Amino acid sequence: TLAFISAFFYRPLLSFIRNSTDAVLFQREYSREELLKELGKTVSESIDLTILIENIKDVLLQVMHMKFVAFVFFPEERIGLSKFEVESFGPFNKKYAFQSDNFLVSTLNQTSEVLVRDELKRRAEDIESPAKKNMETIVTEMDKIGAQVLVPLPASKGLVGMLALGEKGSGDAYTTTDIQTLETLMYQAGTAIENARLYNEVKSFSQKLQQEVKVATTDLVDKNKFLNTLRRLDQIIMNTLDLSSMCQKIVDTVSWEMGYAGGLIGLIDKKNNLIRAQALSDAPIFQKVKSLLPKDLRDLAISLNDEHHVLVQLLKDGEMKVVPRMAALFTPAISYDLAEKIQGLTKIKTNLVYALSAKGKELGIIIIGLTKDYAEVSERERELIQAFVEQAGIAVENATLYSELEQINKELNQANVHLKELDKMKDEFVSIASHELRTPMTAIKGYLWMLDSGKHKLKMGRRHAEYLERVKASTERLINLVNDMLDVSRIEGGRMQLNIKNGVAEHMISGVLAEIMPKALEKKIDLIFERPKSPLPKVRIDENRIREVLMNLLGNALKFTPENGKITVSARKQGKMVNISVVDTGKGIARNDIPKLFQKFGRLEHSFALISETSGTGLGLYITKSLVGLHGGKIWVKSTPGKGSTFTFSLRVVEE
Hints:
Blueprint: H1 2-45, H2 49-64, E1 69-73, E2 85-89, H3 103-111, E3 115-116, H4 117-126, H5 130-145, E4 149-155, E5 158-165, H6 176-239, H7 243-256, E6 262-269, E7 274-280, H8 284-292, E8 301-303, H9 310-317, E9 321-323, H10 327-330, H11 336-346, E10 350-358, E11 361-370, H12 379-452, H13 462-492, E12 501-503, H14 505-522, E13 526-530, E14 539-541, H15 543-560, E15 566-574, E16 577-584, H16 607-614, H17 620-630, E17 635-640, E18 644-652
Parallel strand pairs: 13-15
Antiparallel strand pairs: 1-2, 1-5, 3-4, 4-5, 6-7, 6-11, 7-8, 9-10, 10-11, 12-14, 15-16, 16-18, 17-18
Helix pairs in contact: 1-2, 1-6, 2-6, 4-5, 6-7, 6-12, 7-12, 8-11, 12-13, 13-17, 14-15, 15-17
Subcellular location: Cell membrane; Membrane raft
EC number: 2.7.13.3
Coiled coil: 398-428
């Protein structure tokens, strides 16, 4: 009977259920669409993270009636979130350990797709592939937290987290429409959560900043006076060099900038072993004080031999002292009665006495007068005064050093004038002496030649002939030295005159080589001129002086190149200069001796032996460098000990 009734009513009942379900589903879908619009509005308007989460949760529960909603937020260093955080509503498994390498988290990061447990389980049962194992693992992990759906929450820089949704209260499965709704929601929710987190970060930072600004503002108000005072003192240090002006500006700063009654500076007079008053504040009341003094301020002093005096004790121990009575400070420089009268006139209650020092050196003392008790001086004021005194010590030291430097410069200027006069006298003496020496030496050379050559030649033995040769060589050396000294005198006195003309470097070099070739043949040294491949441009030279330069360099090369050696002369154009080089295969020069080469009487290692062997004057390269410099060129050397040297000098090309 039951089977008959069921069979008879099945089709009408099924039709009724389908029609009723369609109507309900249509109405439910319509309601969901309206709620999503409302959720979109709420998401866009909610900037506080807590409110935003509440709104999203409320809408989801209202629409889909799941048993729980859980927000899992991923770590993000930018906002200080170092680990996973969970905000859940309902029976969510909070003990589940979320990690960055967790399979669920990795899968969501890779796919950014909504994961539905039942769908994944069904697909895993229908396929046989590597993906099957992944699906089964996801289902297993979702079962651990009791989630039916996992919704990623994408934002501008990846996922900010995910939504874990429990099963529906009715036990129904999540429909395609539900999933599509969640897919629409996840982008809005992810962006909104990111913005809300950034807002919370900015809000927190703003609150922290406001608190810090409040504290800093209070501190800045306290420090403003401090900084202005030190800035004023810095300006004094930078703009004042005179010691008296410096001290006066410092004590005026005590009155005008710091707002105290006044100040006094006393400096140590080492010569007379005194502490001598140097400057007193220029405030109106102290103008009257000055008129009461028995003598000029700077004539007031305390003896450093008075070991019991408070100022002398201060300089010994260096510790600040608080002195209520002026009489203890200024007697016996002034009378006790006058000190008391001045204290009553200025209404000073407390005198703060500091040692002025810099770099451990005692310079004097500074007294700061206050119209209040020391107990009323705040800690900030004490720091200000201490910093001010330290800066004042530096300022006084700088001014003292400047005054000493001025005195030294004055003495040096006087000494410099005297030295210039002596140098001028020396040059005149060298010039006169050289002229006077050259005349008789030339005559001696002539007579020696007559004895050794011509019709007056004497007949003499071998030993006498050797003596005569030595005399001739010594005479020639002395004449060369006199000529070199004359050249040095002209160069250093600015009297060297050049006859500059356009010249051909190749012709000049050929002429010098022809002149020096006999000496090279005598020493069995190859003397080679490497001519340039193409003619060189003309150069601006005094040919006689440049011949002297080249002759000097070749002469040195011949002296220091052994027999069967080689000397090569070359000329090359480089830029606007022609470089002439003399390369030898001689002994070479040690690197540390090269800077000495172009100095007057520069001595190299074993130079005395070399000079005695080669008859050098020690002035040749100095004169050579000077002559090249007068032509607007330069000279330099490269050398390797044991392999030889290369001397190069440059000459200016004639501009077309």
